[in-house]
Amino acid sequence: MKALFLGSIGTLSDTSELQREAFNAAFREHGLDWHWDRDAYRDMLRVAGGRRRIEAQAEAEGVEVDATAVHATKSRLFQEMLDAGRAEARPGIRELIETARDDGMLLGLVTTTSKGNVNALLGGLDLSPDSFDVVVTRDNVTEPKPDPECYAHAAGALGAETKACIAIEDNADGVRAALAAGTTCYAWPNENTTDHDFSGATMAGRDICRTIFGARAA
């Protein structure tokens, strides 16, 4: 194993409910009579990309919506929540990062969310971007997950082959992206993605560090 890739900000912190709250607040700001309850949002998380979810909602409602503007408002509200300290690191993730470093592995954060969201979350968790040897955001790719471009970009930046890397993902599109890149993938669902189809990935237990590193994590 040459590199360990954390495949979304959701692998660092389970932010799905904060994001749902931000979406609903953004809808109100834009005068939209929409409310995504938890069950509906769980289904939406099967497809990556918040703007795409807004566009799908508008199409289903038969209305025209500036999805880019609504999504920008959602991102602002979400980042304000992170700045206010409302996110917590997922149990075991700090240990995982430390163990990977001790094991001589390169580390990457490979997401197709915005750089603003990434920086806000890292700041909220008191993690520096320097914790990672490569950080991939929406700015670095032309296609979101499940396209494997983000993984090819991350591996290339580290001078590694994708097949020599391990990815950890918390959602189905992320798993598909990693597997399409030829990267071994561990699925580590959050509370809203436990029923996703993680075919092809190894399911991780609650102790993600022990899942990856076994006795070395003890």
UniProtKB/TrEMBL annotation:
A GO MF label: hydrolase activity
Source organism superkingdom: Bacteria
Organism, as annotated: Jannaschia ovalis
Protein's name according to its UniProt entry: HAD-IA family hydrolase
SUPFAM superfamilies: HAD-like
UniProt keywords, alphabetically: Hydrolase
Transmembrane segments: none
Entries under InterPro entries matching the protein: CbbY-like, HAD-like_sf, HAD-SF_hydro_IA, HAD_sf, PGP-like_dom2
